[in-house]
């Protein structure tokens, strides 16, 4: 049967676009399916778990290394590219290593790591890559196509893989199930790619939200007023935050609408209530001896948020839920009429971009 192989391509992103394209074209000419997961940066553990799943589905693994070490995982201290390589070795995927001949002498500017620390990490990673038997060196991206074809021919002979065949050539039902699973994986990959693309647009959406939002300061209540009963909605001028009463003051501040939008997305990680999300988003870092914020802020005029929330909703960052019919009956503004929550794209982005 005529087999085809799925090959995972791993590299840093911006500096190796042309290199990845050459490798991908060479794989297609060799009747292989390229899995280019490096186009979707592994911003968190959940995304990296998905990448590991794709690596396990591949027959071979290619890593391209030049002058950049790549984004660092906050817990391991390793780049995501090195973590992908380590995982491919851990699960026994045959690997092809494509190393730039001499990045520290031949590459300049944005093509090479600027800091000494990053260069040391890159040198260490290159040392690890050169421990392998199948290691090729390149200087120009145009050389990579030839190197990939030669390397594939060698590795297929030394490390034959299971591969994939056409459905009409498959004799067993088990193989048909595997093909169906591959189709599902490819469909999920396209969905994740679309979500990553939408997530990449969020900073532009937030930056384009213009205007100001007025907030008034609420201080932690003292004496008898500390009783949270004062913070019930029928007690004018008090707000309940984390089981403590906060009393409104005459102090008002103005913040940029784009800043407010960023912080309110963070607030919606904890609650679907606009008031609670605002209190959470703008709680002071200064605390009393018990650890309670000494002040929080509330939005003075909900009308200032109308265009903002309509924009966030239209861009698929937040969504309105009809969960509060009483509020809807008395609300005069669109924002107050609904409970709000982050979409999957909005939640993923704010988790990776928590406001300062």
Summarize the structure.
The chain is an alpha/beta fold and 356 residues long. The chain contains 13 helices and 11 strands. Helices cover 41% and strands 18% of the residues.
Q: How would you describe this structure to a colleague?
A:
The chain folds into two domains: 5-200, 3-Layer(aba) Sandwich (Rossmann fold); 203-352, no CATH class. It is elongated. The chain has 13 helices and eleven strands. A hairpin with a 2-residue loop joins strand 7 and strand 8 (244-256). Helices cover 41% and strands 18% of the residues.
- In CATH, the homologous superfamily of the largest domain goes by the name Toll/interleukin-1 receptor homology (TIR) domain
Second-tier CATH architecture of the largest domain: 3-Layer(aba) Sandwich
What is the tally of helical segments?
Answer: 13
Structural class by helix and strand composition: alpha/beta
- Name the overall outline: elongated
Radius of gyration: 27 Å
Strand content is 15-25%
List the secondary-structure elements in sequence, H or E. Answer: EHEHEHEHHEHHHEEEHHEHEHEH
CATH fold node name of the largest domain: Rossmann fold
